[in-house]
Amino acid sequence: MTAVLHSKGYTGNTVLYMAMELSNAKWKLGFSNGSKDRSVTITAGDWKALSRQIGFAKEKLHLPEDCPVISCFEAGRDGFWIHRMLEGFGITNLIFDSSSIEVNRRKRRAKTDKVDVKALLRLLQRYLNGERKAVSVVQIPTPDEEDQRRLNRERERLLKEHGAHVVRIESLLVQHGVRTPIGRNFPEWLETIGDGLGNELGPNLKTELVREYERLQLVKRQIKEL
């Protein structure tokens, strides 16, 4: 634990705990020295403000200026860039797996950011004090590893999109009494068939089907490129 808490050249035994509640516009910051807490809000991405607030927190919580900072935030849409920025500033950071946080999600939506930050602070301290089962910490990939994951994730999305286009085309046809596989000459084929009653398909229906088919073909090409 000592090796984790102490930054290079620091010989004390205190640490500033920091939790971050991230959103598009604002970052809610929670600070603690283990007994007293402090919380503030800054503009999202304002690193100068973050640095100032860390300094203020050390002062208000009576911590040495050079004591290490250990931070945490919940995994989400921001990915890992904030983690890497914090690490670049010499801050030890942990990203908590959202699914492992012991919070009633329905109640959480009614809570304020301040309560969420306080809960994250408590989790951070519990984890660092040896309660490893209190929360799961995300393993941070390297930038290259993260980039490699993009291909698999994109392929998964494209396969889902492919299936959605097929289902949409088949559903539109079934609604009008037509059941047939989607062939290569689908747009031309549409001009030759009628609905289940033998009537010509409506022009707007055929236009929608052709557009859906074109999107399907685009997805197929993109899947092949991967």
What does this structure look like?
Strands 3-2-1-4-5 form a five-stranded mixed β-sheet, with helices on both faces. It has helices at 2-5, 47-60, 81-88, 105-108, 113-128, 143-174, 186-190, 203-225, and strands at residues 16-22, 26-32, 37-43, 69-74, 92-96. The protein has two domains: 2-140, Nucleotidyltransferase, domain 5; 144-225, no CATH class. Mean pLDDT is 88; it is low at 1-7 and 109-115. The chain contains eight helices and five strands. It has 226 residues and is α/β, with parallel strands linked by helices.
Write the layout of secondary structure elements.
Blueprint: H1 2-5, E1 16-22, E2 26-32, E3 37-43, H2 47-60, E4 69-74, H3 81-88, E5 92-96, H4 105-108, H5 113-128, H6 143-174, H7 186-190, H8 203-225
Parallel strand pairs: 1-4, 4-5
Antiparallel strand pairs: 1-2, 2-3
Helix pairs in contact: 6-8
Protein name: Transposase
Organism: Candidatus Kentrum sp. LFY
Order of helices and strands: HEEEHEHEHHHHH
Low-pLDDT segments, ≥5 res: 1-7, 109-115
CATH domain topology of the largest domain: Nucleotidyltransferase, domain 5
**Rounded to an integer, what's the Rg over CA atoms?**
27 Å
How much β-strand is present in the residues?
A: 5-15%
Main sheet characteristics: 5 strands, mixed
| DSSP helix fraction | 40-55%
Number of helices: 8
Mean residue pLDDT: 88
Strand order of the largest sheet: 3-2-1-4-5
